[in-house]
């Protein structure tokens, strides 16, 4: 694969302030038009953030052409748009042991400190330091993910995805108004559940809500849906049933292609 250098001055806002907008997506079948890739939804989210920040739009046909090229080599793409409209398309492989994690689940750590809340949570910007720090802290505790909280201790999202819970005949996911990322996968799963007539509650995840959850999971566009079987909460551990039949009701199945 041809590699090209793209000069970026050390004084550029992308370096100095994390002034970029990005999205990460999984390309199914090396096809941007595949319905599970949801290319346009990812681009729309970037467009909305750029409009909010009053930044210029990139050359979208060129972005798509670059993404299509990189997708022939990598299943996961990251589209990054700089504050001046320049674009960067990079690729990487799927995470290690993804299929195993999707089947068996992972452990997560509750951060319990609002310090780890993301900056500008409604937008996917280059300033992801708080999430990265939370993930590093979780890994030091022996967990694979971190659950971020607000000042009241309500669960918001994980360091890399949106939260889902099943319990008492209801699906639960924190509301966007709580200050979480409007994940593309989250939107897909919500549409499926609502179309299937499932009961979905988008209310703040207070301790009372969390206590009703029997199956806990998180989602993003790369990993699909991964159950959380163990939560490290202070000096205690909470255990959840990584029920694959329940999680299958969320929507399209995880793909191991």
TrEMBL record:
Ranges annotated as spanning the membrane: none
GO annotation, cellular component aspect: cytosol
High-level lineage: Bacteria, Bacillati, Cyanobacteriota, Cyanophyceae, Nodosilineales
GO molecular function, one term: lyase activity
Listed Gene3D superfamilies: 3.30.470.10, D-amino Acid Aminotransferase, subunit A, domain 2
Family from the record: Belongs to the class-IV pyridoxal-phosphate-dependent aminotransferase family.
Enzyme Commission designation: 2.6.1.42
InterPro entries linked: Aminotrans_IV, Aminotransferase-like, BCAT-like_C, BCAT-like_N, Class-IV_PLP-Dep_Aminotrnsfr
Record-level GO BP terms: carboxylic acid biosynthetic process
UniProt name for this protein: Branched-chain amino acid aminotransferase/4-amino-4-deoxychorismate lyase
Species this protein is from: Halomicronema hongdechloris C2206
Keyword Transferase attached: yes
Keyword vocabulary terms for this entry: Aminotransferase, Lyase, Transferase
UniProt KW Transferase keyword: yes
